[in-house]
Known about the structure:
heterodimer; A: alpha/beta; five-stranded mixed beta sheet; about 20% strand; B: mainly alpha; two-stranded antiparallel ribbon; 17 helices; 2 strands; about 0% strand
Amino acid sequence: MVRRLVLGLLLVWSAFMFLAHLQKALTDYDRRSVFFSDPVQWRFGMPQIDVLQRCFAEARPLIPPGSVILFTSPGPQDAELFRWRWAAYGLPEYDVIQPETPRAAEIAEYLISHRVPIRLPRAKLMKKLSGCQLFRVQPL
Amino acid sequence: MSAILLAVLLALAGRALPVSRWTVRLMAGAVMFHLLLTAYDFLGVRWGRVAVVLPLLVLAGLGRRTARTPRTARTLDWGEGAALFALTTFAAFAPTLWITTPDFIFHWGLKGERFFLARGVDYSWLAKEWNWVIHPDYPNLLPELFAGTAILEGRFEASPQMLWSVLFFALILVSGREALRQTDLPGKAPRPFAPAGLAIAAFALAGFGIVHRMAGAADWMPALALAAALPALLRPADREANREGDWEVGIAAAFAATSKIEGMPLAAFLAGVQLLRRREMGAALRLGLPMAVVAGTWAIQTFRHGLYQKFNSGTFDLGRAPEVLRGLAEVAGWKESWHGLTLVLLAAPLLLLPRRTRAAGAVISLQLLFYLWTYLSSAVDTEYQVVASFPRLAMHLFPAVVVAGVVALGESRGGACPRPGGGKPLPYITEGS
């Protein structure tokens, strides 16, 4: 009897967990086009990702594969880190680095500035793209 | 379609080894696929459609036909129906990418696409100093499956790659069902609890997989390795049929070793515990050889290219225990992704009590102790590491604890091991008897 009770309790518990999580996921999914969050929680289908993907689609024909791209997206440290990782995923044929990368200024060949426009003495603006700017970095 | 095609090819290639369960055949095929691609990397051969498909077809051709086991028509019991519902729900969500794991972006998927573009494991890219964030020293089976799918497809798309998680989830449930049904023999078998066990594992995994965003994650693979080894671990160890059981555990161990870095100790525990029960040279080879080849090639490539990350482990310090406990208490909370169900893992040591579940209980408990050891040796913020990783690590063990727990509950109702083919139940056959 005790065994049946334990199993019954676990069954109800797990079924409740499943349904509660399913309901939350469905609610969030329905709101995905207006679902804004910290970059740590970004998901495919969010507007922020669409902006990044448009930027990368426009930048790709202008940058030779294998180039080193410095991706900047100033903000709180964690947010900047996770936006950089999304950029690396979106540009797998390149070496995507961030400003904190050792020797970043020496090895960067291109620079993509996301969200916040920047000015760098060695970076020459190539094109303004959707949601970002593309620069050619002059060698040292 | 390409993910499905590759999965079928892997399952067929797995027939080259003497195992009859399709779950284990697919895992064997995946391990051989990994070793094949690793050999290509050593030889400098670029991955392509012919290079990937042809050897798998040859392996499939080498496989011996096994006699069909007569099937009796039966309907789904309520536990299987519930499991199918939970799996279908996860499967419907996964390709939308809404529940894709962040780790697919941060490393697994990125590696898969990079390897697809490079037509090989891009070791020079992994070794770049800024790529410490992508765990360059992790075993590569999952990115290789992603790359293989993309090679067959001709392009890399994230959505079809999610099917691997659906497949692994399905195979965990199939393995759990197999482990529970092998006790479904005449006599005092623990049958009445089996549907509940399967349903609990399925609901919990699906719920966690959806809310914690586990599509595209590698954590399904250690969970599958452990679940797939359960039927062999739950069988008495001294029967002639255990030759195949050795292969099953050996392949599960190798699969764990190809999946994640924490799969390496799991592989050692699986093979080691089964070897302690079997104690014969042939068993040692069947259990240890697949894992040794996988771990050996991984070690060569990792250290040759300088990929090992020092932050994987620090110095063991019991003084970290309060932080570890705080982290564990936090993730065990009602509002967290497991809704407190991780507390079930506390029952793992109890699996050591019934003889039938002792081997499974030993593997699960050792792996749990290993996770605690890594937290006590943490080289980074300990509490953060526990909160960030334990829910995923718990997933490796949860289905096995539930399935073995259900067997243990039933076992203590009967405790007899029925004679194969029916007849009077024998007293439980013990090691060495």
